[in-house]
Amino acid sequence: MSAVINIGTRGSALALWQARWVQSCLEQIFPDKSVQLQVIKTKGDKILDVPLAKIGGKGLFVKEIETALLNKDIDLAVHSMKDMPSEIPDGLCLGAITKREDPRDVFISRDGSDLNVLTKTARIGTSSLRRSSQLLHAYPHLQIIPLRGNLDTRLKKLDSENMDAIVLAAAGVIRLGLKARITSYFDTSFILPAVGQGALGIEVREDDPLMQEAMHQLDDFETNVAVTAERAFLHQLEGGCQVPIAAHATVNNQILHLTGMVAGLSGQPLLRENISGHTDHAVSLGQSLAQQLLEQGAKEVLAQIIDCQQ
Fold first, then answer.
1. What is the pTM assigned to this prediction?
2. 142: domain range?
């Protein structure tokens, strides 16, 4: 291992916060090494004037970073797990999934009003088809306004673009010290989070056993098991980050509880089921839950969405 460890990261304030947290951990693990950040722009960072679902492809926020890792320009990569496709490129692996922050979505309104008291035609900003589908399922008359940009930019657009409210991931808001901006938290029984939401993934090369071993120290077992089940669910559905698929798993006394959802763009239909089993069977539980939804019509729902995006 060289004297310098290079961490690949996106350049947003949230991505840098996440990478610096990993940097501080590595400085304790390797006190004799210099741990540096290398900012890499991804396709998702470069194209800001088009809704994510319209850009197409998987790995919009990770592909360029993974290429740098494979080329050995960096030694590890820090990602938000919700941005990671269900398949990891050959030659790479997840060295750790860190302890999860609050996985829920949050509602941030311009005047502090909760969703229930806003007018039926309120303007709600979100970049996520998963969020908009679930919102429209319950409130079909809402106006969903496409919202791109990093977290700070989206908060500014709440005022500048005359929106009534925006929906964001709680984890990012909390990590950036903006918890006071949150109007309310969405219970997972209403808005199911994105696969992996709130967790960080540290990606390393398969041919780097020293880094893999070091990353084991940052891995959180329960988060890893939960996210593994969620990703197995996503993979079985052959879905990406930009379709209305959601999953959330929790672990209690080695029993994993997983809920999954697939919805149409308008919120109709909305298919939702849950499953439980031992943590040893995280992958098969995710696959089984996906199969339940496929048998209820999820394949046709997703096919229609893909047709709309092309």
1. 0.93
2. 105-185
